[in-house]
Design goal:
single chain, Rossmann fold, Pantoate--beta-alanine Ligase, Chain: A,domain 2, 10 helices, binds pantoate
Length: 295
Amino acid sequence: MSNPSSPELVSGVASLRDRLAAVRGQRGRIGLVPTMGALHEGHLSLVRASKSECDCTVVSIFVNPSQFGPGEDFQRYPRTLQADLDALAGCGAELVFAPAGEDVYRPGHATWVEPGGVAEPLEGRCRPGHFRGVATVVLKLLNMVAPDVAYFGQKDYQQATVVRHMVEDLDVPTQIRVCPIVREPDGLAMSSRNAYLSPAARARSLVLWQSLQLAATLVDEGERGAETIVRQMRQRILTAEDARIDYVALVDPESLEPVEEIVGRTLAVLAVKIENTRLIDNCLLQPPGPRAPVA
Ligand code: PAF
């Protein structure tokens, strides 16, 4: 039996637009939470943020093939539509938009968004073509839903940065909000991919959060050398026997260029494989400001 407070499930773009035209007719604000499903508390926090600012919240669920590279987990990515609808029931999202693959990429689809600049380092280097797929599908979703605001999680910091730049460069009239990372009580950042981890690997994956905390502690204690901090972060990660590091970096939070010295707000960001599951995480480091002069 369907839950009475479940959001309405829409799969066609035409019926989505009809439904949203009614909201716009009443001058309602529309919020979009783009997801690939397998929803967890991190996604639900974005839904709540949208609920607090918008009159109608649309959650899109679409496992976007074009952002997965060869050999990545597109086939096995969890597809849990009924559980997702159940999870959303308590959050008050009005609409779930779950289009079929062929409705997003129709036969003959040949137009792509090629993000440059902030899409190039880090994930861009490790996953060639990933942000081309992300930017293209996000722009398509923004065009289909035409939301006033779209919500992204800070866990995918670079993705949110790429989207912010795309929206600005292409004059898309949607505000982009980036919401804080939601963590498990032990610090592991929530991710749909955590479900791949065996219990033992789940325990080892805590080295990601530990290494970010270590970076914050070193900065608090006065260390300013990026090389020293990154070296210690890597050492902490490699205490997990099967950890394979894709990158550990300290970068400028706007340009995502590496920094040599911590002089202001800096992003510590990493991607690590544990038991063949690729996990990413990040945190903003803030060196304590100059002390007020003693009178
Ligand atoms: O973050 C995600 O889940 C995806 O990259 C997104 C933004 C829904 C695009 O497919």
